[in-house]
Amino acid sequence: MSSDMHRSPITGKTRLLGVIGDPIGHSLSPVMHNQAIASLGVDAVYVAFPVKPADLTKAMDGFAAVEVLGLSVTIPHKQAVMPLLADISDVARSVGAVNTLWRTDRGWAGTNTDVDGFVAPLKALRAHWQGATALVLGTGGAARAVIAGAKLLGCDRVVVAGRDPQKLAALQQHFGPPNPLAIALETLVWSDLDRVLPSADLLVNSTPVGMHPLAADSPLSIAQLALLPPSSIVYDLIYTPRPTRFLQMAGDRGLQTIDGLEMLVQQGAVALSRWLGQPAPVAVMRSAVEAFLAPRS
After folding, report:
1. Which residues are in the Shikimate dehydrogenase substrate binding N-terminal domain (predicted)?
2. Summary mean pLDDT of the chain
3. For the CA atoms of the chain, what is the radius of gyration?
4. Nearest Cα to 67, choosing from 14, 110, 11?
5. SS3 of residue 114 by DSSP
6. 281: cis peptide before it, omega within 30°?
7. Do β-strands 70-73 and 100-104 pair in parallel, antiparallel, or remain unpaired?
8. Exposed (0-12), middle (13-18) or buried (19+): which is 23, by Cβ within 10 Å?
9. Residue 5: which pLDDT band, with cuts at 50, 70 and 90?
């Protein structure tokens, strides 16, 4: 990262931002946001807070008590935190998950910027997604943002694969009417994946499988990836390690791949703009993460 990015000293007036999750040690959000904050000359700092699911309520009360300005939310809190919020944006209600919080006079408010982050690199690759089939791996909060993003892109068919039939049924119900992003969502259990892979134009891993420190894992096998059409795009929302084993295997088969870095940057830029009330330096944020992830000599 550039050495000419001068960080203001932390003072008694420094505003506090952060990210909550469990685990959270892998998060590169502090790298990205602190470099952006430094480039803007803003008196703020962004840190990672490990919050266990059982501690979420008291943690949120504590963050409000010490006047934390805003929070990013990651696995496993994107849905669990919603009942604790005083206000939720329409897009977050449509998705059924939040990833960005800020304080208001009435309490915490939340929205979902993951949808913006998810679709940004896909729009750059293809102008039109009509007629496409999107296959989503996973049933958590990130999967909901992917489903909403696929709908907004214009994909005609969205299929979600998971291991828990109850979670699959809940997703199908959530994205039915009267959801503004209602879609005729198809679901299938994990053991039936192979019958859909040959028709998938877009394959998205929204599970944590393959995330550091379990970097040797992959949600699918080499044989399963071989079932995809040659024109398929394989997208992993994970950005550390880079590439994941999943994307490495897909790339070895000649498939186009996207990792979670651009989604991280784009969703983070929307969040930072909301917290600070000014445009976020997207190029600075991207360069900060890329520099941090670059192999050390």
Report:
1. 19-101
2. 94
3. 19
4. 14
5. helix
6. no
7. antiparallel
8. middle
9. low
SS3 7: coil
Give pTM, 2 decimals: 0.85
Rounded to whole angstroms, the Cα distance separating 99 from 256 reads 27
Specify binding-site residues for shikimate.
Answer: 27-29, 74, 99, 114, 239, 267
Long-range contacts of 191-195 (CB under 8 A, 24+ apart): 192/161, 193/161, 193/220, 193/224, 194/224, 194/227
Q: How far apart are CA 160 and CA 295, in angstroms?
A: 34
Cα dihedral 240, 252, 147, 220 sign: negative
Q: For residue range 10-30, list pLDDT tens digits in order.
A: 999 999 999 999 999 989 999
User: 49: which 2 tokens?
Assistant: 């807070």
Annotated binding site for NADP(+): 90, 237, 260
Q: How confident is the model at residue 2 (pLDDT cuts 50, 70, 90)?
A: very low
| Digit-coded pLDDT (tens) for 167-187 | 999 999 999 999 988 999 999
The catalytic residue positions are 78
- Per DSSP, the residues of 167-202 read HHHHHHHHTSTT-TT----EEEEGGGGGGTGGG-SE
Instruction: Give residues with Cβ within 8 angstroms of 15, minimum separation 6.
Output: 42, 43, 44, 45, 69
